[in-house]
Design goal:
Layout (H helix, E strand, L loop, with lengths): L4 H7 L14 E4 L8 E3 L23 H14 L3 E6 L9 H13 L4 E6 L4 H10 L2 E7 L5 H4 L3 E6 L2 E4 H21 L3 E8 L8 H11 L3 E6 L16 H11 L5 E2 L10 E3 L2 E2 L31 E6 L15 E7 L4 E8 H5 L6 H11 L5 E4 L4 H9 L3 E4 L4 H9 L2
Parallel strand pairs: 1-3, 3-4, 4-5, 5-8, 8-9, 9-10, 13-16, 16-17
Antiparallel strand pairs: 1-11, 2-6, 6-7, 11-12, 13-14, 14-15
Helix pairs in contact: 2-3, 4-6, 10-11
The protein binds FE(8)-S(7) cluster and iron/sulfur cluster.
Amino acid sequence: MQLSKDVIESLKTHPCYNEEAHKRFARMHLPVAPLCNIKCNYCNRKYDCSNESRPGVTSEVLAPVDAIEKIRIVKDKIPELKVIAIAGPGDTLANDESLETIKLVRKEFPDMTLCISTNGLMLPKYADSLYDAGVRFVTVTMNGIDTDVTEKIYDSVIWNGKQYKGKEAAEILLKNQLEGIKKCVELGMAVKINVVLIPGINEDHIPDLVKKVKDMGVYIVNILPLIPVEGTKFEKLSPPTPESRKRLLDLCSNDVKMMRHCRQCRADAIGLLGDDRSQEFIRMKPCCQKSDTNRINVHIRENDSDIRKIAVATSSGEIVDSGFGNAKRFEIYTTDGKTVKLVTVIEIDDDYQIIGKTHSEHIDKMVNVLSDCDCVIVKEIGPYPRSRLESHKINVVISKDDVKTSALRAFRI
Ligand code: CLF
Ligand code: SF4
């Protein structure tokens, strides 16, 4: 591991990478990244990314320009602010807004250290751009290096516009994580690995993972305890005891520097690690509305008015095969009319638990989830959901065709 000079200098004031700095220097997370391209079995997307945040706490989602305004206000009130980071609430690199925001921060606040966290799926693609934009600190959440273990942790991965499940998903993710970490280390960035300690799933495997990433040149490893969240596959698992986590930290500290002062902070955390002041800065401006976390919040920038978000009711991902009221799965695409890009998948029961007690309550909840879309494509729809969608200015398209062709066609409506 060969850290560049600027990284060595910034390490003195980075509260997460340097335990001595955490009581004196502050960090600010910019919640500009709502979408995620994988699905971890401990994640409930009603909340923030649990790889770098505390579940159960809502955050606002900011547009890049609003994030810059917010830094100005925070910097005035918290002079100890040294690190600006993006850590969700989805995956940083699944959202174009992240790089756009980083470039703006670099331009407006060149003295700030830039830091991001990611699940690593898109890291090989973005490592160079992150470096060029001034990012020197990268956290990758990695829960194993053996896909027999990690296939139990990840439900699915969206890769090259397709959703993968099981072993295949675990293999795609692992390959990209390793390639991304290698690139970041070669660029001279300080890489941190976050590992979620999941009793009965990966605890015995973590020492092997730590050895591997140490050999790759990562700077520090952070072992976070699983927080079982209601509505997830892991909701019934027990969290690790503090003693078992400490044993693991002690064991692994023979191999690499271990982080012991993590606070599992929110995607909009602000301040010293032990003194979160994010609530002081929520909704400072009318445009910085606190997000309804039951919405998908696919933020499209104003100058991207030629891009549409389209929700497609499909069980298979191939044809439009579900009616609105009984759809179990929506794929969300963005399209410019020439190409379509799968950005996320919403499993109605698992992700949002939006099954209402009555039919109309169920419809209202689903409309709320999709209210950030421009268009919904379904096989059939009743008059009530149609009128509810149209009252949100969402076009309704009926189709029984191929998903992507239908999405392209809907762009022209
Ligand atoms: Fe944020 Fe993470 Fe950067 Fe720190 S948090 S992106 S490295 S600036 Fe820090 Fe928070 Fe623990 Fe993360 S305490 S959850 S380790
Ligand atoms: Fe949830 Fe995505 Fe974060 Fe995993 S990486 S915890 S699925 S937001």
